[in-house]
Structure formats: C-alpha cells, structure tokens
Amino acid sequence: MVDLSVVVGPGTQVYPGDPVASLRVHSTIARDGFNLLSVEMGSQTGTHVDAPFHFDETAAKIDELPLERFIGPGVIVDARGIGPRGRITWEYIAPVADQLRPGSVVLLFTGWSEHYGTDEYFENPFLDADACRRLIEAGVRTFGIDAINIDETPDETHVGEGFPVHHLIADVGGVICENLTNLVAIDFAEPLISLLPIAFEQADGAPVRAVALQTT
Fold first, then answer.
1. What band does 159 get if pLDDT is binned at 50, 70 and 90?
2. For 91-95, which contacts have Cβ atoms below 8 Å and span 24 or more sequence positions?
3. Where does 43-178 have alpha helices with state H?
4. How far apart are CA 61 and CA 82, in angstroms?
5. Contact (Cβ atoms closer than 8 angstroms) between residue 94 and residue 53
6. What is the C-alpha separation between 128 and 109, in angstroms, rounded?
7. Mind listing the pLDDT tens digit for each residue in 126-157?
8. Other C-beta atoms within 10 Å of 8: how many?
9. Per-residue CA distances from 37 to 7, 9, 16, 20, 158 (Å)
C-alpha cells in the first residue's frame, strides 16, 4: 500500500486565494479527559478531489457521486521532465493507451510534487484539452495529477486557458484529484487506486487519503 497524499496542517500549500488550513487544540486529556482538534480549511485542501459542481452549478456535488468514481485500476502516464507549464499532450499518453478503459483512474506523473511548498509549484505542467477529450472518449472519468492544478495555473504573467480540462471532465460527471505525491513509489503493475473523499454535504470537493494498492 502506497500513500499518495500530502499531510494537512497549517503549512499545507493551497491554491492562491484558498483558505489556509488551521488545526487548533480544542480539548486535551489533561483538561477534558480526551484530545480533540478544531479544524478549519477549504474544501480543496491538500490532496483532494473536485466534484463536477466545482465548475458547473447544475452538476453533481461530492456527496452525490457514486463511490465507484473514486476507485479503479490505475494507469500511470509518465510525463516527468516536461518542465514548468509543460503541456501534457497525447504523445505522453499514447504508450499506455492500450490500458485505458471505462473505470480507469489516470494518474499524470509529472514529478512536480518535488516542488511542493515552493513558489515553483504554481508553475505546474497541465493536461492538454485535446488529450483530455481523447481520454474521455476512451471512457475515463477519474483523473489525478501530482501538481496543484490539472489545468494551467494563471498568474500575473500567464493568463491561462480558462480551465478547459476542468470543464470537460465536469461535463461528463468525472472527478479530478490534485496535489497527489509519491507516485514514484508505485513500482508494481496494475495498481488499484483509491481516492475516496470525505462526504462533505453539498460540496464542490473534499480532501482524500489517496493510496495505491498492490492486489496481485
């Protein structure tokens, strides 16, 4: 079993403008007889999944999606070395295209998690919209990336493309997992990927404890 999740705490890196996580001691054994934390954070803190509702007001929220959407056989797309703001085109996916089928969990392995906690993390590689369309045509509905955003992250000098991949995946009721880490540790064939989220009510997304399991 391989842990693919970042730890959530006050130092967790968040998307620009998102709430910063706050974990405060609420109760202690010495005072109350038990330990309890008060937790405040955004719905997309740390390793998390986006529901279609994140970019579509009429689409399914995180607690309305079938659990099957969050578990499936992993297909690892090796896009390491693509560089800052590199576009993950179909040429990176083609070597594993024969593994794609409905229910596959496609993990975009960019290596960008090495930059987690730095400003460079926001210069992430991203999935090309045409490649996303082809993945959707192959029946893929669950996508993950070891970066802060599956689309290009805009800033003062990069306008970006308007989050086309988020919209494409939302349109087919798919989900996106971002801020994955440790994909390099999946060194076995046919991993089973679990991205089960907290069942937040009426939410756009939720944190997950993402894992890859070797089942054979």
1. confident
2. 92/131, 93/131, 93/134, 93/135
3. 90-93, 129-137, 164-171
4. 33
5. no
6. 14
7. 999 999 999 999 999 999 999 999 999 999 89
8. 17
9. 15, 11, 25, 16, 39
pTM of the model: 0.96
Q: What is the pLDDT of residues 170-207, one digit of tens each?
A: 999 999 999 999 999 999 999 999 999 999 999 999 99
Amino acid 38: pLDDT: 98
58: Cβ contacts below 8 Å, ≥ 6 apart = none
Helices 129-137 and 164-171: angle between axes, nearest 10 degrees? 20
Is residue 194 within 8 Å of residue 210, measured between CB atoms? Answer: yes
Pairing of strands 205-207, 175-178: unpaired
Q: Is 48 helix (H, G, I), strand (E, B) or coil?
A: strand
**Distance, C-alpha 184 to centroid of its chain:** 16
Amino acid identity at 59:
A
- All structural domains of the chain, each given as residue ranges with its CATH number in brackets, are 2-213 (3.50.30.50)
